[in-house]
Amino acid sequence: MAAQKKAKTNVATTAKMQVHFHAKDVSTLQGQAVVFFSQSVGQKEKSAVIVEKEINKIFAASVAEKMITGTANEVVLFREANLNDFRHVFILGLGEKTKLTHETFRQSAAALIKEARASKMEEVFVGFDNITSGKKDLAKYIQAFVEGLYLSGYTFDELKSVNGKKEDKKTLQIHLVSKSAKDKSLVSAFQQAVIVAEATNFAKRLGDMPGNMMTPTILADSAIKAAAGTGLKVTAWDKKRIEKEKMGGLLGVSQGSDQEPRFIIMEYNGGAKSEKPLAFVGKGLTFDCGGVSIKPSAKMEEMKYDMCGGAAVIGTMLAIARLKLKVNVVAYVPATENMVNGRATKPGDVHVARNGKSFEINNTDAEGRLILADGLCYASEQKPKFIIDTATLTGAMAVALGNVHTGYFTKNSALKNKIEKAAAESGELVWNMPLVDHHARDMKGTYADLSNMSYSGGAGSATAAAFLEQFVDSDIPWAHFDIAGTAWACGNRLNYCTAKGATGVMVRTFLEIVKQYV
Q1: By percentage, how much of the chain surpasses pLDDT 70?
Q2: Which domain holds residue 391?
Q3: CB count in 10 Å sphere of residue 240
Q4: Statement to judge: residues 238 and 351 lie in one domain
Q5: Distances, alpha carbon 296 to alpha carbons 302, 303, 365, in Å
Q6: Is the pLDDT of residue 9 over 50?
Q7: Which pLDDT score is estimated for 191?
């Protein structure tokens, strides 16, 4: 059964889910299933309380018997409860009240979606009126919940055949309900959530596409197509233009591939013409076999994800444009494959970056830093307020931080503070890593200015960051994000991510950094 009145202006749709936002009292509605939130309370003897007082009384026995514990992401379904005018009831756990954050709601939304689909629900209502008394917190919680719905709603199955079976075309209807839903801050939170989640899911799709279907050219074309009508200006330099621009790192890595490289430029002008832009640079390795220093065959298929830094930057720019933020932002994505043929770069070869610095290639699998070098040089020439780059750069970062935190490097305390504040707002976990002059000395070359591999043999992520630092003007605040551990296969820790697929990591955090400059 449908709601009595649906809010026509606040409806968002994905392939298999539609989310509505109603300015109603959930007790006045009717439908297939309703959701009530629960929280865990007590220290020694853990118990639970359902946020709706009247509902708490009804399920008191289930709470006493520990069927409902209120722990985070707990979903308890009572079929045929026939409560008020709802046939089924979900009790959705939020954990301890003192530990409640917007990330709690992001993950609880994902837990609900999974259970609703598993139980073959078609319509679910979620009441938000008794979660908090503060509108600011309510807006954050609603935004996070909607993000969680959309992020967990992402699936990459477009390449699968249905094998003659009829595809299930039923769309899950999610109705979020609050008596304050017409409040501008809540409407804005709902709309922002949809934009942010869609941009993140777009970045996920770019990463999940196989290498033969996401070449440098296709990546550039995808960015151009997605930007249509958003106010973004997107151009892509071809090989001839890249040669003209003297991007020796990008050209050197691309030598071993039959696919041409691309240098993608995205420009958004939402601020004053006199205002310096913010700059992002993302690694766009659409497939990386390691070159002549070839990788082991085990899990090499995952190297389609080596462009997730570029995907994050593209997703961030799309979100900025759709949100119409009053700021100027530019982004650069050097894109290529790292493959092996008779023209491929050999260990010992020397290439020269755009700024004239030479580097000897002592391992062709340390290629991401070479294409980023040219991107950072070009970004520096634009004299932006800051430069942030992101890349699946080193296996050492995954060893250090696993798939829990994204490691980042910066020597600029003001930018560090903005990053930490942004991560707290986005719910993404980051960790500030060390970067000192010792790391830079480890990257000195024997036959060229620099080596692309450290001679010390340790601190692989820090020495890689130190290499990149050589291509950024010293007077420009700069930060490097190594997402090697968090760009894919994080479903075991974040339930709104697919088990093995791309995560779209850092789109939310980068967006929050940009907002601080609006």
Answers
A1: 95
A2: 198-515
A3: 9
A4: yes
A5: 12, 11, 11
A6: no
A7: 96
